[in-house]
Amino acid sequence: MLPIGEKLSIATCYASLGDAYLELKQYDESRRWVLESQKIRLDIQDKPGLAYNYKVLVQLELALDDIRGAKVWHNQLLALITPDYSPLFIQIDVLFVAYLIFNHEGDYEKALMLIAVVYNDRVKRNPNVDGLDKRIAELREKLGERYEAIRAQADQETVTSMIEKLQNAYKFIL
């Protein structure tokens, strides 16, 4: 039996392969390696690694236009957040992949609420948010006149309040 550190290293390598294959649009290979990583991460209870895998799996399902599958993985990611365990990076991942799903579905109002909160949180910690600026600009174009009101509302939200919305009002129903 391998020590936990070695298992973690192997799981990380497998997840990286899955991510690389996703970028190459080799979806079967991507799924294969991420799920191999997932087995190990579940065995050693690596919640940060599980969060990463769930995020990649959401992106994979969306690349395949499987919104239901993306929602299943998102719900798994969201379930990692408990009263005893809710690191900010996992909360941000939850909001970001929910943004990807809502944007993919064409629900641009919810997408803007989510990505604006992620943007506002990141600006506080790190001014390098170029990728998020582009996503917000795309939603501004899609929402037209409704953008300003929705953005003003989003600017009043926090990461925690949006997590609560994803657990309740924005919850993905399968």
List the SSEs and their pairings.
Blueprint lengths: L3 H20 L3 H18 L2 H17 L3 H13 L8 H18 L2 H18 L4 H14 L3 H8 L4 H9 L7
Question: Can you describe this structure?
Answer:
This protein is mostly helical and 174 residues long. It has a single domain (46-167), classed as Serine Threonine Protein Phosphatase 5, Tetratricopeptide repeat. The protein is built from 9 helices and no strands. It has helices at 4-23, 27-44, 47-63, 67-79, 88-105, 108-125, 130-143, 147-154, 159-167. The longest helix has 20 residues, at 4-23.
Keywords:
174 residues; mainly alpha; Serine Threonine Protein Phosphatase 5, Tetratricopeptide repeat
Task: Characterize this entry briefly.
The chain is mainly α. The chain has helices spanning 4-23, 27-44, 47-63, 67-79, 88-105, 108-125, 130-143, 147-154, 159-167. The longest helix has 20 residues, at 4-23.
